[in-house]
Design goal:
The protein is mainly alpha-helical. The protein is built from 5 helices and no strands.
């Protein structure tokens, strides 16, 4: 049962799903072409990057494991950034007795 859930989660956490979720978040604006270029150029040829921008990473022939690897890196980076911000806010809240993060 646990393996089934884990496999389902792995299938759902894809580069495009993460990007689409971010785009649906109020206040988040992403330059899709710039984002794709920045993330894909590390792993793909220029022609594949251009095709991914014009259509989609899947249609450009970028392997799913590369797309998932990028997705996880982006997610982990964002989580770390948010944790550092919340930690900083928590530290300042102890100094100034202000609840910045609502935690």
């Amino acid at each position: 049962m646990a393996n089934k859930i884990i496999n389902h989660i792995k299938e759902e956490i894809t580069f495009e799903n993460v990007l689409m979720s971010a785009l649906k978040t109020p206040g988040v604006k992403i330059n899709r072409a710039k984002f794709l270029r920045k993330e894909l150029i590390k792993y793909c040829r220029e022609a594949q990057v251009e095709a991914a921008i014009k259509e989609s990473p899947a249609r450009a022939g970028i392997p799913k494991d590369i797309i998932n690897k990028i997705s996880l890196q982006v997610i982990n980076s964002d989580i770390c950034r948010r944790c550092r911000l919340c930690y900083s806010c928590s530290w300042w809240s102890t100094v100034w007795r202000i609840d910045f993060c609502g935690v």
